[in-house]
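Entry 12.
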Amino acid sequence: NSLARLADLQASLSQHGAAVESYGASIASYDAALERAPDYVFALNSKGLACLKLGAFLSTQEDSEKASALIQMGLIVWNRSLEIVPNNTQLREMRDRLITMLQDDT
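Predicted 3D structure (tokens):
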């Protein structure tokens, strides 16, 4: 969604507060869509990606506790999506790479 793209731009321009707000608004918009259609795979995948991007951004801002919670939420959302469409190999590969990266960091 455009809020996620705006957040990406703001983060690249070092507009940190605005980027956090835009990522948060993006996640909230996906939550609203998922309230109406809980199995909407596009919203699940996009919410997961927005959580991961915000988590990664916050980790650079020294907010590791919130960053970790967001990254875990992204994994939960992607796992839910894979329950609905288990043959989505691109999503499965991204999820598996993320899990490997997280394990390498511990």
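Annotation: The radius of gyration is 14 Å. The first helix runs from residue 2 to 12.
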